[in-house]
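[Discussion] Sanity-checking designs against the backbone

I'm trying to build intuition for which residues belong where. Below is a structure token string of 320 positions. I'd appreciate it if someone posts a full sequence so I can compare it with mine line by line.
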């Protein structure tokens, strides 16, 4: 493991921090907003002890330092319509003082990427929803070339011979509702530590050298045996990092050839629902140059790692 990333020695949030029923607390989106750190986390509730999951809502937590979090008394978001059955894995991007939440939206007719808007984390407006199947959408924090820009991960089936061979794409929009300029950013075959699929992780962060961008990478290893208490979980998720061109974010200008983040701490794996999973959903660049990475571990707890932004840029540009 590279020495550049420093992990905290315990999770920043677990089910024990949540004052309402909670079993798996993970895959949070995090942003700095109105002088506070704000986190929206996925809560799969049910019974952890009985390995039973009954549903999903999204919880809200706030913090003054990004490390110690206070969870609001009630979940902030649980969105259902006749068509939408579940919303999860929120990623927060602040654009011009307003918060946009990209999330996976399970509908009765497929998995979509939804974009919601809020200013108070109480009321959420659905701005747009993609065609299925599309998951893991993230918004850049400003317009690029006059257009809102997102990374996304469509899930092709026929053309990929009915296997998970999923890649990272981008799209642009004048108004966050009408999306076009669709373009491949990176294929799964371009990631040496993925044999299955890749997808966007946290919303990109702007640096002098380019958009610092995380992605998740999946290895499927049925021979490796089941990992976690889910019935048949044989995948591992790591995270990679790359730099995208500031003006042309479909262009990769540097990519680290190894995972920047993977499970290697007991607290990330213990009793995990799906072990060997890291899933970053939030990245913050502090004025000091520190990057905070928030990531779900084993789909069970939420963790934090930090690194110096210049070290990460160097890794991307040198590749090794
Ligand atoms: C993905 C999503 C994520 C999850 C990951 C690993 O497909 O369901 O929510 O963290 O798998 O289980």
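Best answer:
Here's mine. Compare freely.
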């Amino acid at each position: 493991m590279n020495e550049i990333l420093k992990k905290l020695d315990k999770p920043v949030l677990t089910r024990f921090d949540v004052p309402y029923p909670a079993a798996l607390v993970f895959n949070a989106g995090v942003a700095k907003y109105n002088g506070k750190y704000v986190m929206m986390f996925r809560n799969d509730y049910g019974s952890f002890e009985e390995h039973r999951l009954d549903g999903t809502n999204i919880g809200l937590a706030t913090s003054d330092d990004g490390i110690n979090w206070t969870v609001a008394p009630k979940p902030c978001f649980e969105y259902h319509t006749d068509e939408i059955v579940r919303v999860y894995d929120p990623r927060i991007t602040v654009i011009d003082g307003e918060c946009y939440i990209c999330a996976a939206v399970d509908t009765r007719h497929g998995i979509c990427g939804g974009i919601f808007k809020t200013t108070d984390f109480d009321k959420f407006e659905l701005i747009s929803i993609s065609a299925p199947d599309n998951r893991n959408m993230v918004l850049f924090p400003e317009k690029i070339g006059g257009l809102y820009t997102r990374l996304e991960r469509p899930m092709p089936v026929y053309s990929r011979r009915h296997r998970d061979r999923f890649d990272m794409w981008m799209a642009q929009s004048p108004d966050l509702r009408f999306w076009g300029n669709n373009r491949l950013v990176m294929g799964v075959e371009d990631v040496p530590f993925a044999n299955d699929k890749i997808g966007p992780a946290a919303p990109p962060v702007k640096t002098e050298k380019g958009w610092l961008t995380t992605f998740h990478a999946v290895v499927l290893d049925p021979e490796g045996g089941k990992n976690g208490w889910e019935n048949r979980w044989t995948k591992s998720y790591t995270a990679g990092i790359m730099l995208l061109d500031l003006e042309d974010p479909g262009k990769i200008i540097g990519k680290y050839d190894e995972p920047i983040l993977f499970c290697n701490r007991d607290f990330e794996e213990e009793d995990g629902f799906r072990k060997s999973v890291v899933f970053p959903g939030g990245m913050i660049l502090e004025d000091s140059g520190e990057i905070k990475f928030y990531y779900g571990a084993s789909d069970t707890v939420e963790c934090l790692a930090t690194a110096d932004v210049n070290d990460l840029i160097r890794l991307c540009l040198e590749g090794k």
